[in-house]
Amino acid sequence: MDILVINCGSSSLKYQLIDMEGEKVLAKGLVERIGIEGSRIKHEPINAEKVVIEEPIQDHKKALKMVVEAIVSKEHGVIESMNQITAVGHRVVHGGEDFSKSVIITDKVMEALEKNIELAPLHNPPNITGIEACKAIMPDVPMVAVFDTAFHQTIPEENYIYAIPYEYYEKYKIRRYGFHGTSHKYVAFRTAEILGRDLKDLNIVTCHLGNGASITAIKSGVSIDTSMGFTPLEGLAMGTRSGNIDPAIIPFLMKKENMSCDEVNDVLNKESGVLGVSGISSDFRDLEDEAAKGNKRAQLALNLFANRVKKYIAAYIAELGRVDAIVFTAGVGENSPLIRKMVCDGLNFIGVSIDNELNDVKGKERIISSEDSKVKVLIVPTNEELMIARETMELVK
Ligand code: ADP
């Protein structure tokens, strides 16, 4: 069974074709600059050289047509015909309160997705465009929507309701939704496999630390709290996002700097986080290099980031009552021994101890806690595409 996984952004489209027998990636790639000058597709087939095809790609339908052509092409294709694609799994950012699981896409589902645009005005429209483009090109292939928010629909009320007038929840559905759900779920499953334990018996804190970053408390395989909220702006300091700040800063800034709502929203989403603090970069590699050379603000950004990760982990351990494993994933979590060490050294008091040699690694799945650590600490590279393909297969089987 070959499953095509699609992750559609406003001007980009990422794809993977996965043979579910052995869960092998047959091809993957990226269409960039859709509708913008300089559009191209980068296609990486298994067992052959990567190809880049540059040509005008005016919309997502054309992009998808090129993806399918690349996958079945004589020169760099991996299957003979489009008919071999059993199903398509789409990443959808926001399922609101309508979806607590992945679903087969029907007209009713499309209506619900449209309704949820209000909650994710930047992300859901391109996701919907991707689904529509796929339907136009492969009308008979079943499609599944896998939501970033679905895994967190198990969070109890006291953790998802904000302490503002309850009517705003009733009127506008303002509540914590949480994001990166597919990633948190995947690494939790994988952690249970690595530890040879039943996920039902484990309490896990998963740390997805990428450009966007979130932490989740998982009890018996179920999300009970997560750091992102109504939008992906809440929680940790991130590459360019502020994460938690005193909400009173917003009207203060609007008055002092004469900013509009949209302007202040842009500052908090695009100019804040470790970029805003350091004034250097949102990329942790740059910050680590600069901090090593003695740049104080780069060091401050790293300290602030690691400290907030540590505080969330400790808070979530308190919520869980006990923790069996702490898991690091995504760009920074997988690749930065320094950040992992800064975070874990701060958790020595609850018996977390990492082995510095084991921690000295990038992008490898491994246990990095020391023999005597009371809590297992792991690096588990995330694989959202595989998780989407698995959920798609389950539903269409
Ligand atoms: P997203 O998917 O949210 O865009 P990723 O999970 O790909 O982000 O993470 C990207 C971030 O990972 C980069 O901004 C960079 O800071 C960080 N990163 C990647 N490699 C390294 C590394 N070797 N050391 C430290 N940070 C790294």
UniProtKB/TrEMBL annotation:
Compartments reported by the entry: Cytoplasm
Keywords tagged on the record: ATP-binding, Cytoplasm, Kinase, Magnesium, Metal-binding, Nucleotide-binding, Transferase
Keyword Magnesium: yes
Active site: 148
Associated pathway: Metabolic intermediate biosynthesis; acetyl-CoA biosynthesis; acetyl-CoA from acetate: step 1/2
Function statement: Catalyzes the formation of acetyl phosphate from acetate and ATP. Can also catalyze the reverse reaction.
Family: Belongs to the acetokinase family.
Protein name per the record: Acetate kinase
Organism (species): Soehngenia longivitae
